Q: What sequence folds into this?
């Protein structure tokens, strides 16, 4: 039995499709079962509720061999530690009590770097990994750079203004990955019962690019000029708090961006195993272009 959290989210729904295609019995945890397509509800066991709730995870993890763990976004959380570490505590108790053998979790690059202790969401993600590992479960933390798909948040700006923004330097070359590749790596590990111990699994995409490189590729794919605009950190943070994000979580986003600008995502040596297949150009063709032209 494989348990999938966030089955209606961008990554979770892809993981769910892949493990179902592999034939494994699947149980999902979802706040609202109605959000699952009817065809999917017929193929999975559904536990309704939050996977931050002790009773919910205890029920969902009973008899489970493996769990896909992804913390849902909580932009109004009191702190990044509350959003990641405290949210995960009930699940960690249930992992031990229910005898779950393997967990695959979504985390971040940065462990061992000078920036990791002051990197906002990344720092909290790594602390979450340590908490999960402390239960004694076999654990694979998928450590990611920024997601290509996060640029979809700026699809309207790209469409109307021909630009996208970040507080990170336009010349900083770094890896990025597509969520469909994250899901493929996660599903593969969930269906493989041979691995043991605790390890990080980097998911780096096939290349390092700067935002200026990305702007050039976007321009070529969209056949219209697109430029990158660096914005001040405080303006970046202010935009998030004005959108309803808590002060602590907005600061966590800014701290993460500043750490990435200082090289947080460049600390892992690229290997063939860590290089997932979707290039930024291919992602632009398949995902960004339809979103911008819609």
A:
């Amino acid at each position: 039995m494989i348990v999938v959290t966030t089955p209606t989210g961008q990554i979770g729904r892809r993981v769910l499709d892949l493990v179902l295609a592999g034939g494994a019995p699947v149980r999902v945890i979802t706040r609202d079962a109605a959000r699952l397509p009817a065809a999917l509800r017929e193929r999975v066991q559904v536990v309704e509720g939050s996977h931050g709730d002790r009773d919910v995870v205890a029920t969902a993890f009973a008899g489970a061999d493996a769990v896909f763990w992804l913390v849902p976004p909580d932009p109004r959380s009191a702190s990044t530690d509350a959003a990641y570490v405290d949210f995960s505590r009930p699940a960690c108790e249930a992992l031990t009590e229910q005898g779950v053998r393997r967990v695959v979790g979504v985390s971040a690059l940065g462990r061992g770097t000078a920036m990791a202790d002051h990197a906002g969401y990344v720092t909290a993600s790594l602390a979450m990994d340590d908490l999960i590992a402390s239960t004694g479960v076999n654990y694979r933390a998928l450590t990611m750079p920024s997601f290509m798909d996060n640029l979809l948040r700026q699809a309207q700006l790209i469409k109307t203004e021909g630009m996208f923004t970040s507080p990170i330097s336009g010349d900083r070359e770094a890896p990025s990955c597509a969520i469909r590749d994250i899901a493929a790596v996660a599903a593969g590990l969930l269906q493989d019962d041979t691995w043991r111990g605790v390890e990080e699994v980097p998911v780096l995409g096939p290349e390092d690019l700067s935002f200026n490189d990305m702007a050039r590729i976007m321009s070529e794919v969209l056949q219209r000029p697109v430029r990158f605009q660096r914005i001040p950190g405080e303006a970046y943070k202010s935009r998030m708090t004005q959108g309803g994000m808590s002060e602590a979580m907005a600061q966590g986003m800014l701290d993460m961006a500043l750490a990435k600008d200082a090289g947080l995502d460049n600390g892992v040596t690229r290997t063939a195993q860590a290089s997932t297949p979707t290039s930024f150009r291919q992602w632009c063709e398949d995902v960004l272009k339809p979103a911008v032209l819609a």
Observations:
- The chain has eleven helices and twelve strands.
